[in-house]
Amino acid sequence: MLGGQGERGSIVTENQQTREPVKVFLVDDHALFRAGVRTELDSITDDVRVVGEAGSVAEAVAGIARTKPQVVLLDVHMPDGGGAEVLRRVRPELPDVVFLALSVSDAAEDVIAVIRAGARGYVTKTISSKELVRAVVRVSDGDAVFSPRLAGFVLDAFADRPGSAPISDPDLDLLTPRERDVLRLLARGYAYKEIASELFISVKTVETHVSSVLRKTQLSNRYELSRWASDRRLV
């Protein structure tokens, strides 16, 4: 998750160094994560300037309207509606604001849903600080930016090719966003304690989510869940 602090300065290419800093607004329901991103970006570069942050959809809508950022770094899953809801409410009023999804999720359906809602790019939270700065500057200049393996999901979905990533799945639709997050990490072999640490929740909450997923999918153990998740390209 976001690393690579170094000497402060410009990270973008030389012909961009005279530009004004890109104004960035952070949207994520984890305050510690927002604080970490803000601290790292402020410490390593003059290319971007964080002008505000929010931890919920309502706070994000109000904060973006107030600060008028150029780029919004947007979490996909939040308790009160998530990134797609922020996009739905902000874009009609502020069409010039660019959205870049920054999420722990790298599931095809999450990537496709937020791009269809209007985001200009999608990167995962494993991205380094310097790479994130470059991504912010690029989307502010009109480019589309994706973490490498995610670009294929978008190409498949919008090309509508055989074998493309599904836009929706009735079985997946039964799961809440948090249950999908837990399932994805479980299928990758994470222990309950590791899942809890990654998602900033308790081990007991992880156990509750796993039990709910097993019930909804009518499966009996984590090995069957792993196969089920792999078949749906969650892993």
From TrEMBL:
Signal peptide from the UniProt entry: none
Pfam families per record: GerE, Response_reg
Modification sites for 4-aspartylphosphate: D75
Cross-referenced SUPFAM superfamilies: C-terminal effector domain of the bipartite response regulators (SSF46894), CheY-like (SSF52172)
Biological process (GO), any one: phosphorelay signal transduction system
MF annotations from Gene Ontology: DNA binding
Response regulatory domain segment(s): 23-140
PANTHER family linked to this entry: TWO-COMPONENT RESPONSE REGULATOR (PTHR43214)
Protein name, per record: Two-component system response regulator
